[in-house]
Amino acid sequence: MLNEVSGHFGDTFTELLGKAEIWIFLTLVGVSIAVPIIAPREIANIFIRFIELTWPIWLFFFLFELVKPIYLFIKQEQFKEKEMAVEKNTLIELRVPRELEKGPQAMEQILLAIHGMMGAPSDWNKIWLDGETMLWFSLELVSISGEVHFYIRVPKKNKSLIEAVILSNYSDIEVVEVPDYVSLLPETTADMYAEEKDIWGTEIKLAKDPLYPIRTYAAFGVSEESKVGLDPTSSFLEVLGKLKMGEFAGIQILIQPASKDWAKKWMDEFDKIRTPKMSGDKVQLTDPKETTTVIDSVARNLAKSAFNTLIRVMYIGPTTMYKDGSGFVRGGITSAFNQYSSPTLNGFKANGAVGTSVDKWKKPYVLNDTRLEMKKQRILWNYRKRLIAPKTFTEKFFTSFFMNGNNSEMFELAIDGVATIFHPPTSVVLTTPHMRRVESKKSGPPVGLAIFGEESQLEKFGG
């Protein structure tokens, strides 16, 4: 924790040194010290008098740079609490027919539309007076006592537009607004223990830098033209569909559009991949075919739009079933995410810093039971609130607890990667009996479906 805080403090200090106001202040301080020593008495007196008259102004600029991120954090937290509240959002369920012809490609088109609906605020008043910041959507694959559901949580103002986009890509799917299932979950670990239940949870992050792509649906052979291939969703359904009465498991994928130029910060790393490695005075030989494959894959990945992504997994079960149930879900979900891994590209791994386990042989060695309870409470709270990871030192500092820092991590994931992880299962895996489904196919989206949204949003989908 101390190492993390010191690291973030160093990043913040470096950021401060990049601001002109800070350098002006530091220059003024340096001159104030030097002038009385090296300058003639008359000049020194004039300068000292100048400082006496103007020091509040320079101190204001300096303190403003320190206070600004705290002010912005408070305003943004107020904005997020208001905009992400239950009354301003809705949970829609995707109910799938027994035979679904569309594959992950259709979900990729939906995610592209969602990506276009969300944007960072650019108006000064909205940012500094209202604390407006970019919001996020939640894609959720949930099992309640073995019945599997596909959910998308969206702002109510975007609901009709998103329904139209979903139905235009998946005409056979039924889109239903449903009560938020998190109301069924305990609010605190104390409530959970009162129900004689326990919790396991963690977050999933990339094994390498985001410029390297994961295995996407194209590598699994899943397409709308072919009924063969392996739909990776089947691995999740196999695990989630086997939960017993009283058990709960959820995979929560929070997505927030990455900037249009998200790939720029990875270009130096990409250049290293494209540059032959040197060993002494000689070029280090590598497999040219493998290198070409990696370069092409990374280039395609960086050319795509992406989401800042956070993946959270949680299991809650009766204490009498917890040991076997949590072990089964933990192992099954881990295996399901392993299928997206590629030895030469990227994959997923657990973020152990947020997992509900404590190693007594690792720092800080003490208060293990207390730290475990904090981690359990945090994973439950974050899941219920669908909270994303902090982006700045200020956010991380004010959302950390004693001996339990906020170690959630978001990463850029290209849209086809998100669609590969979350999409309605194709007909090749719809043999599972534990899904909420539509018993018959629909002929298409309802005629005259009302679409509400801002003009700029509607233009994205116009003819």
Q: Care to describe what's here?
A:
This protein is of the alpha+beta class. It has two domains: 2-66, no CATH class; 95-260 and 305-437, no CATH class. Helix content is 44%, strand content 17%. It has 16 helices and twelve strands. The protein has helices at 2-17, 20-38, 41-83, 104-117, 124-128, 159-169, 189-194, 217-220, 233-240, 267-274, 288-302, 322-338, 368-385, 393-398, 415-421, 455-459; strands spanning 89-97, 137-144, 147-155, 174-178, 197-206, 248-257, 278-279, 282-283, 306-318, 348-350, 411-414, 437-438. Strands 1, 2, 3, 4, 5, 6, 9, 10, 11 and 12 form a ten-stranded mixed β-sheet that branches. Helix 2 packs antiparallel against helix 3 and helix 4 runs antiparallel to helix 6 (159-169). It is globular, with a radius of gyration of 26 Å. The model is unreliable at 1-14 and 457-463 (pLDDT under 50).
